[in-house]
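pinned: reference chain
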Amino acid sequence: MRVYYISGQRSGFGKGDSIALQMTNSGGADCNIVPNLNFETHHAGESSIVESSKVKAFEPCDARYTDYTPCQDQRRAMTFPRDSMIYRERHCVPENEKLRCLVPAPKGYVTPFSWPKSRDYVPYANAPYKALTVEKAIQNWIQYEGDVFRFPGGGTQFPQGADKYIDQLASVIPMENGTVRTALDTGCGVASWGAYLWSRNVRAMSFAPRDSHEAQVQFALERGVPAVIGVLGTIKLPYPTRAFDMAHCSRCLIPWGANDGMYLMEVDRVLRPGGYWILSGPPINWKINYKAWQRPKEELQEEQRRIEEVAKLLCWEKKYEHGEIAIWQKRVNDEACRSRQDDPRANFCKTDDTDDVWYKKMEACITPYPETSSSVAGGELQVFPDRLNAVPPRISSGSISGVTVDAYEDDNRQWKKHVKAYKRINSLLDTGRYRNIMDMNAGFGGFAAALESTKLWVMNVVPTIAEKNRLGVVYERGLIGIYHDWCEAFSTYPRTYDLIHANHLFSLYKNKCNADDILLEMDRILRPEGAVIIRDDVDTLIKVKRIISGMRWDSKLVDHEDGPLVNEKVLIAVKQYWVTNSTSAH
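pinned: its structure tokens
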């Protein structure tokens, strides 16, 4: 058998050494491949992979596409209406305009710093955009220092730093004991709120549009903080009902009182019973601040009146208002909300499936509380980390058709076993080498639960064509995730994930869309020297392996942990390091 070593990354921040991880050559695995995959970052070297037969080689895209986001392309966005932020929503390129090339890294690209250093420093070469350092200079968002950006932890509403701001919130919201675990940050900027919640064991899903604040979501992901490109516009958020323990807006410029309170109603949909909504900045405390904000006090007064009116209709209880911060709490059930049944302004949503949200129009309607035998609508959650492995209410109540408690627990056991086998293949899996991880077909979140660590996070993606809607279960476990259709590009920048896991994804999408396109999208969002784990039946994996042999990835097919007779196999791959205008991959 031929043995090849892969070169690694030109990283000024890695260890600068080369660690080749020998992968066991199991019986039945493909021998005409790379048996030694290097998962560590290190200085550049050379490798020559000889293919046994000709395959389609994908060419690099032009250098101008280094930060290409196919469904949030700036030039394309400007052709859509500006009202209600329609032009900032997802508008994917049609089939005949897809690039079908490899998106290059910019010159000088390096491996991001490891967490927690990455929270405060991002290499300039990875996202070379200085606009925010000027525009947000007095707000302490971001500073340019030599060859790095520094993030002091400031923000428009927390110039004294995110920690002190969160301390103020934590005086009202129980963040320390695991009651609050999942959070949504709307209009997140560079996601400092989410970054500083990490030490309190709270996981925030942050989103912001791709707009004039160039690269804010890209900065968040370079820092190692969960974030996606997104906006509150006319389409429902890609999250399930009752997902988040708290939601947050810090001067996020969302018109909460407009459109009959539609945006607040959407926050209410994704907020768990008993969850909290935080609003800081205008119009809170307008009587004191209207001059500093340079806005008419009558306008601010009306804005706050509308917000208070919608919050009352939603049956939220105001818990706190001090300075420029206000906090509301959603009731745990509708016992205290009976009076709104007779309120003509209370328009309740008619849909049977409140989680059917993909490209669905947002409505100004209230999502009803679910029926429950518990005092908490939808069922009570344990504190984290207990909730990670407890049976989630959506499972115990039987609300997911055909899924029993036994089947759920068996799924958990299987994923613990699979992840243990993955760690034997790649011993760096949970060392912090991979910070931003994506599971493209997450199911109940078993992969993420088995990997759970303060060193990493997993974006649990539940495909919109998946048979059972399991993302609600993922959130009930204290994990985070999103709905997505893999026939389209994901709402992120290139090179934002360190490791991608795909369990039976290609079987799921067989005859639905082109496998080439899915793999090219994986390549776009994967960092140079990032790793891929694809689990599927052997016939599917052989086809996938042939495609990726033209993609500057090095790969190895390995047997299922139960032996070569199992039809399910695992394809492991590492993306080679190369940058724009380089003649070949390293």
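why pinned: DSSP finds 17 helices and 19 strands in the chain. The longest helix spans residues 405-425.
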